[in-house]
Amino acid sequence: MTDEIKIITEGQAKDLILEYALKNGDKTISAHEIQKEILPELSSDEVEFLFEKIQNTTDNVADVAISEYACLITATGITKRFIEQGGFTKSEKETAELKEKKAEKERIDFEKSIIDLRLKKWQLKTFWWIFGFAIIGSALSVYNFTNSLSPSKNVKQQEERIEKMESELEKLQTSISNGKTLDSLQTTKDLTEIEKK
Predict the structure, then answer these.
(1) Residue 182, H or E segment
(2) Does domain 10-85 have CATH number 1.10.10.10?
(3) Does residue 149 carry a pLDDT above 90?
(4) CA-based nearest residue to 28, from 58, 61, 70, 84
(5) Which pLDDT belongs to residue 152?
């Protein structure tokens, strides 16, 4: 014959104790009786420890009396309502879920901090390069702007060439006009000579 060992949580064990106390009504039940009847896989010290935990709850779900010689429990009016609302098992599950959520949040925060650290390292490595390029670009744009405001050498050379060409053109015009006047004077002189003949 094989003995099956029931694996139950602390909350389930405390709920079993309270349910057994409810079945027995106003009768006082000892830790020894609980250990013998419903929790044979636990030692009497473990059952007494569960009695202490039930006694230390803030809801005062049962009357628990603990002395050197015995641990006794009696169900109260709150015991039935507490069991109907889920008992210690429900609060144990809620606590476990909260712990899981907290652990998940801490894991996510840890991963986020790793990503933030990588990003900060990347920013630190690239910031000075980008900053340097920005300074160089700004300096070049200021240089180009100031150069565009002052006349360049090419413009000055072109202006000088234009002035030379204009002066040569004026000289040419004067020489042409002088040549015409000379021609006109000579033609009149020639005409007067022809008339005299």
Answers:
(1) helix 153-196
(2) yes
(3) no
(4) 70
(5) 66
